[in-house]
Amino acid sequence: MTETDLLNLTYSNITDARQDMSRLLQERSRHLSLPRSLYNDPLLFRVDMEEVFMKEWLFVGMTCEVPAAGNYITVDIGQNPVLIVRDRDGEVRAFHNVCRHRGSRVCTGAKGKVANITCPYHQWTYDLKGNLIFAGSDMGDDFDKSQFSLKPAHCKTAGGFIYVSLAEGEPPAIDDYLATLATYMEPYDMENAKVAAEVTLEENANWKLVIENNRECYHCSGSHPELLRTLLEWDDTNDPRATPEFLALCESQSAKWDAEGIPHKHAEFGLRNRLVRMPLKEGTAVMTMDGKPACKLNMGRIQNQELGSLRILHLPNSWNHMQSDHAIVFQVIPVSAQKTLVTTKWLVHKDAVEGQDYDVEKLRYVWDQTNKQDRTLAEQNQRGINSLAYQPGPYSKTYEFGVINFLDWYSDAVLKNLPGTAQ
Ligand code: FES
Ligand SMILES: [Fe+2]
Predict the structure, then answer these.
(1) DSSP string spanning 263-329?
(2) In terms of residue numbers, what domain contains 160?
(3) Which of 122, 148, 171 is the C-terminal boundary of a domain?
């Protein structure tokens, strides 16, 4: 435990922490930020990990990152190393990246390609469906390999996105969202996309502060000059602040999108998922400094470069902007009560050639700046919350309804999973 963790440790054991978390969430005011301990206490963070990140569906990567049989990526979800690999039938599968011999992490890199999955410790070898196929000759005649397959994790894909759940039983229902996601992503043909750039920022802030910051644009005018060259601050056509000019722009753009068969209408699945295509500022095509496309090739079957941005929200750990020439996906992975990893990937058509069809610096500039600005905001938010002076403050119902929605989702997700909530 770090020194900061010790300073913020309110609970002496996890049972007390779980009970108190349940009480804090049931008693919280929906229109106030959370009590301090929910943002910085290490044991309450452990409850977040156990009840949200070990049970809900998490965005872990894109199918084009595992384009062929044997391609894999890895991600650590809390203490749990996870391996995502494409098998020889083309299916993307997820496993606990933990050897069934003595528990070593099996695939040690962030990504790679293998014929089979071999543990570096004693070379136990698994096929791409996780079956143990080699354990040497030293395990004895009665050793039954079929009992030692890699443990699977729930894994589903749609529209190029890969979601994993570490739930031991049945994970939350997600198929309705995935069917809609596949429809909205069809124009992008994400199997034929590639990651052109990727960055992971380590942020000294609780994961909920990272998501809260993303769920409102109240802070945009004060912090994001690059983003606001193209982004319109309204969240949706039903945004209470929407002006008649904005609504007229939405209407004229959506008529063009309809003509091209580009899905754009608002769709939501509880508070967890939301999809909507929103126009960017008139005269701009994508989120670059000059608003012009960053890549000469459009994605998939797209013709019209002024597609605005298809915004896709997946709680608890992802938001995304799909544009005409490139897509930007974001993944949030908590590390500790006050440390969070935020990974951003920029994707383009797989045939686009760097330096010829796109310039990486131009492609990533706006969101690189925006991410750094957001990191500073989340970290300063955390530092203030750690102070004795902090007390939960009011969210604006007009500007911060997205934050309220996020915390309602979070609170419900934790409370439904917390056993003994009524104690
Ligand atoms: S721990 Fe993997 S082969 Fe021994
Ligand atoms: Fe921001």
Answers:
(1) --S-EEETTTEEEEEE--STT--SSSSSSS-SBSSPSTT---S---EEEEEETTTEEEEE-SS-EEE
(2) 58-171
(3) 171
